[in-house]
Predict the structure of Glycine--tRNA ligase beta subunit.
Amino acid sequence: MSYYFLEIGSEEIPAGFIGKSCDFLRGEFEKQLKENNIAFGSVTADGTPRRMYVYVTGIAEKQADSEEFIMGPPASIAYDADGNLTKAGQGFAASKGIKPEDLKRTKTDKGEYISGVKKSVGVETAEVLKDLVPRIIKSIPFQKSMRWGSTDFRFARPVHWFISLFGGEVLPFEIDGIQADRFTYGHRIMCPSRFEIKDYDSYVKTLADARVTVNTESRKEQIMIQIKALEEKHGFRVDVDPDLLDTVSNLVEAPVAVLGSFSEDFLKLPPEVLITSMKNHQKYFYVNDKNGKLLNYFIGISNTEPENTELIRKGYARVLRARLTDAKFFYENDINVPLSQRTEELRKVVYQEKLGTSYAKMERFRTVAAYLAETLDNTAKANTDRAAYLCKADLLSEMVYEFPELQGIMGREYAALQKEEESVVKAIFEHYLPRFAGDRLPETAAGSFVSMADKLDTVCGCFAVGLIPSGSNDPYALRRSTIGILQIIRTKGYRLDLGSLIEKSLSVLAGAVKFDAEKTAAAVKEFILQRLKQLLVTEGVDGECFDAASGLSSDVITLEKAARALAKYRNSAEFGVISQGYKRINNILKKQEWNTDAVNPALFEKVEEKALADLLAEKKQATAELINKEDFETALSGLLAFSKPVDAFFEAVMVMAEDEKVKNNRLSLLTGLRNIFGLAGDLSKLA
């Protein structure tokens, strides 16, 4: 066993590209080595802004020999009447490298064919890698790449060197005129020299001495240690954002934490403005006191250990001061403009070509939000209406124009300054929630209603004009909007009829857009139900159980309760008998309805009929009452008692009796049984 090591040296690659590219390299090397029948131990891929590397351990010196079973032409074509190979048979053997005497006759469902085993001798791994490695490098799927030389080779940034070592020896290849070798380069500023590399261990040590930490997790650890030291020294607290830590660790090769500050006068701005400027724009860590109050300090991560730290600190502060000065200017301009004025200006803003202006969209979801308030909590109707009217106003503010990620946040801040009701202030921000998986949900009723209404209008509007997600293509984030609606409904326990809610949303759209209301409503409902199904499946509920329950109600809470109850019992033997019985009954009745009141005990010829009828009479009302109370678990538990009687009935009773009255009596009995089982869902889908 040996090893293979690859380094791709380049100019600084954007931080957001590195992790994904290294993941691709690791996965692609694993995939290609397996497909090429080359044994290996593990594949590691990592990188810095100036280099990405792959290290394969325990790699075999050559491919394993292989055998492949190959089916040839029919024996009637491969052999003549005397049993000799025809030209077709000989051609098959020659083309596959199989000796004629090794061919065999193989019987299949389609007749007798000739077959053979193609034996391949493995070639040297080094020979495979010479072709394989350049192909993998050229296939890295960067978000954006360019041609930097005279060839068609594309990469995120210009490539300057390759290291390619197989078992300590250079494995040669060439891309864009660059020959693979065993030389790397240290830190661009602190140690830019050229270094010879013998193996992976020497690579890590040599670059560490050359001021480069090649392992991403190690760089993160170094950053955290330095931040911790500053916390202990100065007595403040840094809430390290994992995403920011990921980004910063891929911006540097030798992280050095630098503590800086800005004028306390900027603390008059909303904290989110300062945090956004520091975190999103400057990639600084913001600093709080022990109680979580934002301080006028920040921590920047430098890529060098400067001789004059104060110079770096001042440079970081100067850049941030310019950003915060702009923010202060925007803020002071914005607070002089009423939100209601901004809302009216939305009449001039196109939301979507076919769906009209942002003001028109606001009017639509404002109507739906009012409907939700009337249905769920009428005391919140006035604040819901006001929040819906104002919630998009900050989109036209100077602050949000410059910092789009502050939408909703600035609306909340400006509404508070303009003395709006507290729940209105909160709802303006909350109507964007949840923004991503794991995000918090609206706390206020108004925020919940406006959030659901806005998201539903987006879904209904896009479906109405044909902007329907397909595959991974979902430019208007309709899946995310739908999941947000469902999360609010499920968490808050809102009892809503999805069909009525969708019809309400589409009704306010009808005046502006032409569409088939019935088909669109059905499509939107199915889209929402599929998202609900996916959510439940991720939580451990069998998808088939949801399918079985889906016809019971248009209420999300009801559907979830029913699906979870079915999932609890579906694997029991008794439930299996019931679901199979339900399916069999459906096949017998073929969707015909028989009068269950017409069951006449006097026509029973078998004790099994009477036993089933008696149990049905006993359970019918109680089961219906439990289902009405949505106690699906207790109802299903009671239905399990039908297991043995149903099994015995079908064993002993011929339903389609010659006597017409007896037959019809039995069909009426089965109709009653189908009705009671159907209260829990379409059990045939679980048979």
In short: The chain is about 50% helix and 15% strand. The CA atoms of residues 2 and 59 lie 5 Å apart.
